[in-house]
Amino acid sequence: MTLRYTVLASGSTGNSLLVDHEGTKVLVDAGLSAKKIEQLMEERGVRGSELDAILITHEHSDHIKGVGALARKHDLPVYANEKTWEALNKHLGALAEEKIKVMETGSVVEFGGLQVESYPISHDAAEPVGYCFHDGDTKLSLATDLGYVSSKVKEKIADSDAIILESNHDIEMLRMGKYPWNIKRRILGDTGHLSNEAAGEALCDILTGKTETVYLAHLSRDHNLMDLAKLTVNNILEERGIQADERKVELKDTYFDRATKWDRLGPDS
C-alpha cells in the first residue's frame, strides 16, 4: 500500500493538507476559499468530488475558511472534536446533521485502509489537535499551530516516515517586527506558534532514524523566510550530530500560494 500527500497551502493566510491512500482522499483543514482549494487540488490531479472527508485541526479562520462551502458542494462529512464544533459551527454555515462528525481527541477513525489518529496540542483555540495517518507501519504526522512540542506530542509523532512540522517564525525577526507587543507575546507563548529554533530542538528529540522527510510549515510571511527556517533547523540538527548519522533527514519547503508536489510513503515509494 502507498500513502501520498501534498501540502496544498501553509501559512498565516491559509492551510490545507491532502492525503490520498489507495484512492481514499482526506482533506485536513481548508483555510482558503473553496474555489482556491479546488484549484490547488486540480493542479495535483484531484477533483473536489473525489474527497471522502474533511478533518479540522481547530477553528481559526486560516484553517476553516473553505470548509463549509466544500462540504455542502460535495456532500462531505466533516470531523472535529466537540469543543471545536462548538467554536466553529457559526462559521461554517448550515451542514446536514449527518455530516457533522464528532471525533474525540485521541481517537482513531478509519477511512478505507487509512487510520487517522488525533492528538492534543497547545494552541489558543478551543481544543486544537494534530493528526497522525497510519497504514500499517507507514506513518505521516501533522504538527502545526502549537506553542511548544510537549513530551506527549513528541511521543505521538515519533517514528513517523514524514512529519509536517511548524516552523513559524525567527525569534529575532518577530521581536524586531511591526506587530504590537501583545501579539508578539501571544506568538511566542506556549499557546502560540513554534519558532525555527524550537522546531529544530524538538526534532532532535523526535528523530529516531525512521523519519526521512520533514516539511517545515506554517511560516510567517512577516517574520520568517524558508531559507532561514531550513538553515536554522539544519544547523541545530548538525550541532547535535543528527545530519551526520543514521537519523539524517531531508528538510522540504511548503508554500502559502501553491501546493507541494505529491510525496509518497510506503513500500512502493
Give a short summary of the structure.
With 269 residues, this protein is α/β, with parallel strands linked by helices. 29% of the residues lie in helices and 25% in strands.
Q: What sort of overall outline do the alpha carbons produce when their principal axes are compared? A: globular
**End-to-end distance:** 9 Å
With strands numbered from the N-terminus, the spatial order across the biggest sheet is 6-5-4-3-2-1-14
Number of helix segments? 9
- Average the pLDDT over all residues and give the rounded result: 95
Unreliable spans: none
What percentage of the residues does DSSP assign to strands (E)? Answer: 15-25%
* Structural class based on helices, strands and sheet pairing: alpha/beta
Q: How would the blueprint of this fold be written?
A:
Blueprint: E1 3-9, E2 16-21, E3 24-28, H1 34-43, E4 53-55, H2 61-64, H3 67-74, E5 78-80, H4 82-92, E6 100-102, E7 108-111, E8 114-120, E9 129-135, E10 138-143, H5 151-157, E11 162-166, H6 171-176, H7 181-188, H8 196-206, E12 213-217, H9 226-239, E13 250-252, E14 263-265
Parallel strand pairs: 3-4, 4-5, 5-6, 10-11, 11-12, 12-13
Antiparallel strand pairs: 1-2, 1-14, 2-3, 7-8, 8-9, 9-10
